[in-house]
Amino acid sequence: MTWKTTTFERQKLFDEVWSTPISKLAKEYELSDVGLRKICVTLDIPLPPRGYWQKLAAGKTIPKPPLRETTVATSYTRATYIAHVDQVLEERIVHARDELCINVEEDTNVYFPPADSTSFSKEAKMVGRAMKGTKVVAGALSISGVTWTDVSVSPDLKERALLLVDRFAHELEALGAKFENSCPPSPPLRRGARRASGSNRNCFVLHGQRFFLQIRERIVQELVPPPPLKPQKTPRTGIQPPWEYRPPEYRYIPTGKVYASIVDAATYYESCKLEDTARGNIETKVKKAVCSVGDTAIRRNVESALREERALIRRKKAQDWEVAKKNKEALLAQLAAFEKLSKDLDRARSLRRFIDEIATSKGAPAELVRALELMALMADWLDPLVKAPWPEVDAVAENNPFGSGW
Question: pLDDT digits over 131-188, tens only?
């Protein structure tokens, strides 16, 4: 993940704009025509007029205007974010797609709408049976968590919703999806609330990932104005309307706008959302949406497996580092021990040379002559090659084993 910077010099860009069409020049800079024009406006660079390149192609001579002086900056720097592409991940995803054979031929996977409800698939019939016992609440027939599909549409669009469910079931079965409808229905939520992530519910499993289908209709809610109150006469104040609390009443108006979305059952985030547009209705986009969700599921599986492999490699490297670290510490401790032995050997040799000089000297003090045996014992005790005992020192511990005298 890096940033790529491109610097545009005013004079150079001016010469390029008047020598190359801006559409070709923008491709060289990996920009759009509009983006390059904005940079020219920022640097106060005049652009060729409309029809300039056609007139040049026809052989006409058009004078090039001079680059006028300006107070703006003479250079412009553009930073572009370059995302890192994991080649290992992409290769494994392609290999996983080839193994699963998710590319189904068009002629072998053609969906034909059923003539009536008796010709629906088993999964669509299950959704239809779940909607039979529902009542119109807030202008819609709604089921949530009862099957692998959540539906909330007006009675007029119930048939279309079931046809969409049947089409989705057909495309999902073609990709090898498994439907799970053994969980109990999800408890209802208050209006506007969102269900907690990780809750278990009925869904379909595609390439090891759990999703559910959601079909909703946009229903407008309008406040119903209360009827006027009838005035009442009182003996003292005359006519006075009584005070009475009336809860707000709403009416629900179906708009006919249907939305279909495939939602992740673990996180409750929409993986894709379909709606009727000028380019096509929802029915024509089902196959592409299901294939897109299948690709997403494959990518998640490969990413999870690759993440585990890399984590295992990191743990193995960490363990190897721990072993190497312990070995390093042991070697350094051994080095310190050898250095101490070497230092003790140097002290022992220095002490023996001192003993020899005292023995050969005629004017050595009597105290040193009397201490020759003690110095020899000290030298043998220091010498790591001799390691002679010194009872007066070795027998006394560093700490008092009998405690304090107080």
Answer: 988 898 888 999 988 899 999 999 999 999 999 999 999 999 988 899 998 887 777 6
Residue 289: C-alpha distances to residues 102, 145, 186, 263, 388 (Å):
13, 22, 26, 12, 88
**Residue where the block lists tokens 């119930």:** 158
Token pair for 84: 């890192």
In angstroms, rounded to a whole number, what is the distance separating the alpha carbons of residues 197 and 278?
A: 35
C-alpha–C-alpha distance, residues 143 and 151, integer Å: 5
- Give pTM, 2 decimals: 0.67
- Kind plus residue range of the DSSP H or E element containing 359: helix 286-360
Widest CA span in the chain: 146
Q: 106-112 long-range CB contacts below 8 Å, 24 or more apart?
A: 109/171, 109/174, 109/287, 111/167, 111/170, 111/171, 111/287
Residue with tokens 């509009």: 34
For residue 387, what are the contacts with CB-CB under 8 A and spacing of at least 6? 380, 381
Q: What is the CA 205 to chain-centroid distance, rounded?
A: 21
Pairing type for strands 140-143 and 203-206 reads: unpaired
Q: How far apart are the first and last CA of the chain?
A: 71
208, 297 in Cβ contact below 8 A? yes
- Residue 119's H or E segment, with its range, is none
Residue 237: other Cβ atoms inside 10 A: 7
d(CA 116, CA 84): 51
Q: How far apart are CA 123 and CA 27, in angstroms?
A: 50
> What's the CA gap between 321 and 332, in Å, rounded?
16
pLDDT in tens, 269-280: 999 999 999 989
- Distance between CA 277 and CA 70 in Å, rounded? 48
Separation of alpha carbons 153 and 139, rounded Å: 8
